[in-house]
Design goal:
Shape: elongated
Mean pLDDT: 77
Strand order of the largest sheet: 1-2
Number of domains: 3
Strand content: under 5%
Number of strands: 2
Helix content: 40-55%
Radius of gyration: 23 Å
Low-confidence stretches: none
Structural class: mainly alpha
Distance between the termini: 41 Å
Number of helices: 4
Amino acid sequence: MNQIRSLKLYFLGVLLQGGGWFGDPGPYQYGYNLSTIRWCGILNRIGFAYLIVGLMEIWISENKAKTSRSPHLNIFCMHGKKWMVAFFFVALHLILTFSTYVPSWRSEWGHNATSNPNVRSVLLEEPFLIKCDVSISY
């Protein structure tokens, strides 16, 4: 049941990333561009995390030995294997996040080429460059 629910969350995230609702009069168009589809949006990541935590709860056993007098430390030690798996996935996420190359890109959000220069607008007069070209290496 856990796997079905996490798959529903994941594919709901893929469905909702398409850009706008059916019949929405806004500037967005509903549809998918397979070259820019987001496979790892927020809802997709929540579904993935739900799957991993559910599988950890099912497959990883708990330690039964009491190691200290503190009940809080006992709970931590009881679930030590689960904490190690969780630490592995957090470390993997951080490594992938900070070692990914980020290229520079040109932002055209809010740009209106036909705007009247005499009218004050919140739109940008011209697109601007977001300079990145970085990758953190250790």
